[in-house]
Amino acid sequence: MIDRTELWIVIIGLGIGSFALRFAFTGLVGDRQLPPWLLRHLRYTAVGILPALIAPAVLWPAATNGEYDIPRLTAAAVTLALGIFVKNVVGSIISGVATLYLMQFLLN
Amino acid sequence: MASSSVKSAFKDGVRDGAPFILVLVPFATLFGVLATEAGLNVFETVAFSVVVIAGAAQFTALQLMNENAPTFVVLASALAVNLRMAMYSASLTPHLGAAPLWQRAIAAYFTVDQSYAVSITKFEAEPAMTVHQKMAYFAGVVTPVCPLWWIFTAVGALIGEAIPASFALDFAVPITFLAIIAPALRTRAHISAALTAAALSLLLVNIPYNLGILLAGIGGMMVGARIEKSTEAKAEATS
Questions:
Q1: CB of B228 within 8 Å of any CB in chain A?
Q2: ipTM of the predicted structure?
C-alpha cells in the first residue's frame, strides 16, 4: 500500500519539478537571443530525444520482460515506414496498431 | 486580417492535435486503471494527472512507489524522465519566447510530447508565422489533447479493472512517437541524429534513472548539429 504522505509529496513535488523544467527556457529566457550553436543543436531535439526514448521500448518491451517481440517489432517497422514515405501521422498510427494486433493474432 | 489568421492557426492546431486522441485515450485510461490498482482513490489519481500532466513520468513514479522505492528516488527518476521537457522548452523558446509571460507560463504547463512535437514541426515548416499565430496554434494542439488526458484518467480510475494484457497498451506510446518522428526525418542530419540517439540509447540502457535516454538524445543532437554545419560549409564552398 502506498503511503498517503509519500503519495502527495510525489504528486506535488513532481508537479512543481515538471513545471520548472517546462518553464526553464520559454519562461526565463523569453525573447533574448540564444547563441547560434545552441539553436543549431536545439533544431535536433525532437529527432534526438524521441528515438532515444522509444528505441529500448521497441526492442526490449517491458511488457514481455525485455524479450524482443515480433508483433511489436513489425508494428514499429510498419509505422516508421509509412511515416517516412506517406507522412500521415494518423494513418501510420492506425496501421501500426492494426499490424500489432494482426501479428499477435497470427502468432498466437 | 490578423485576428482571423490567429483564429485559423488555432483551428489548424486543433486539427493537427486531434489524431492523438486515438492514443491518449487508451494511455490515460491505463494510468487510471493502474493507479487504482496501486491503491489510489479517484481523486488522488485525477490529481496526479492534473498536477503532473506527463504520462511517462507518472507511470514511472507509480511503478517505483509500488516497489516501495524511497521518495527521493521516485522523484529523481520521474523528473529524469521529464528532463526532456526542459529541452522542449529550450527548443520552443525561439518561437514562443516573445509572447507575454502569462501565456508562456500556461504554454509551459501544457508542454507535453505531443504538443511539442506537432508544434515544432509546424513552426519550422512555416517560419513566417507570427508569435500570436504560433501561440494560437500551440493552444489549438493542446485543446483536444490535454483535457482528454485528465478525463480518461478519471474514466480509468472509475472502471478500475485491468485491461487485458493482449491489448498491448504499452506499445501505444512507441507507435505514436514513431509516427510523429518519421516525417521529420527530412535531411541527412535529421536521420543521422535519430539513428545515433536510438543506438546510444540501446547502449546506455543500464544507466540508472533513465539518464541514458537523455545522454543518447544529446548525442543525437550533437551529430545532427555537426552534420548541418558541415553541409552548410560544403554548400558555401561550392557556390
A1: yes
A2: 0.83
